[in-house]
Amino acid sequence: MPLQPVSRRSVPDEVFDQVLGEVVDGAIGAGEPLPSERRLAEVLGVSRPAVREALQRMAQTRLLDVRHGGTTTVRDFKRYAGLDLLPRLLVRGGEIDTAVARSILEARLVVGPGVAALAAERGGPALEATLTETLDALAASEDDVDRQVQALAFWDQVVDAADSMVFRLMFNSLRAAYEPALAALAPLMAEEVGQVGAYRVLTAAIGSGDPDTARAAAEHVLRPATTSILSALTALEES
Amino acid sequence: MPLQPVSRRSVPDEVFDQVLGEVVDGAIGAGEPLPSERRLAEVLGVSRPAVREALQRMAQTRLLDVRHGGTTTVRDFKRYAGLDLLPRLLVRGGEIDTAVARSILEARLVVGPGVAALAAERGGPALEATLTETLDALAASEDDVDRQVQALAFWDQVVDAADSMVFRLMFNSLRAAYEPALAALAPLMAEEVGQVGAYRVLTAAIGSGDPDTARAAAEHVLRPATTSILSALTALEES
DNA sequence: CAGGTCAAGTGGTCTGACCAGTGGGTCGCC
DNA sequence: GGCGACCCACTGGTCAGACCACTTGACCTG
Question: Chain B: nearest CA to A197, how far in angstroms?
């Protein structure tokens, strides 16, 4: 195992994670009040500003309802949380939540082709060359992890070409969730990124400028791994 | 204009918005350093904890890179921001960014049918009744704004039925962005929510359990308003 | 019993201090 | 003169304690 940067978790980070854990794991439940900042500070053995910072960060992501003068209450994260909570929901209690994993694959399969279609409509003449270059790097790579990185770069360029702020922001969040786990997931996704041919077809389709062709080609890239992992997950659930 | 709750912006909120403005409007640019916390506190006339809280909140959304001992630098929000930044990007400099508005409509058109298809696959027998109930409320409503609320409730139930965490989280972010502007956008979207018939067809399609039918029906609900607003935006851009 | 009053508890903010990590400049050695 | 180790100034990280602003509910008053 290669050397890794030591993780330097700040005190507010720690508090944030702990409180988030209470909320996500249901120990506190939507609508229930949180202990006061002073009390939390005392219990956790940290200063009040540290607690405050953590709670404010949670409030920013709509996980808490902080009211001046009143008690801070927990909101229903399933109804209010954004995509940034995805990593935390994917691994709940040390285990991978298969339902969440499934939803990621399904969403990929819905959004990916849509983005590819937009990219086909809007991608300029230079796009196909850029994509091809990335694919060449992908094809030349010998390492699973590096292939993942290249595939991610490929999709990044497709999203750029789609020229859609919403899809760009979605992609940013999903990438932020995916990258930390990239090494762990590389073997699982190896099948997909090994199909350089399918990627080349997709590149040509996007370059052709026809949205429907691009949509179909993207689905052809994403479908196989989606299906096989999905059925693996189903088998896992039953065991 | 009806009475509204007075907005009580906290000091860190104010700082957050100001710094965010500098970043989003490009006054500081990706990679450039931010003034030190002490300096910012001095310039803005607030305490350092207030500045600190604002900066930490921005760091949490991947907009800043804060390093202990080093200088805090601005990250490229287009590459790292999540969906929560959408409202801020939609109205830049007091004006609506038509490109962003366009991307919202396009994303709706891609994701909506996908969600509907999943809902058709997974929705239980009670789903159709629940959706019909919401549609009855929508049909009975006389107010544009209230119709928007009902339509939102309808899609909320569809997303629930799709049983997909990723789409749920996406929907949460989009709803959080949409709701504050709901009253302003109601006239624009009135055409869509007026088509109760299309919604009923969609409900039946979802109830039938056939994903493809549901997908097509959802597109039929979303397409007309999407097309008309899109062309209005194009006209706006050219003027 | 309705109304206003008030006190306790909560979050909001500030001050000032000190700890901890970074980076550039400086000084001394080769 | 070149180069390395050291040091210090500056950055963010954390804390303690105080006070302000707001909400709530108990209490008191009419």
Answer: 26
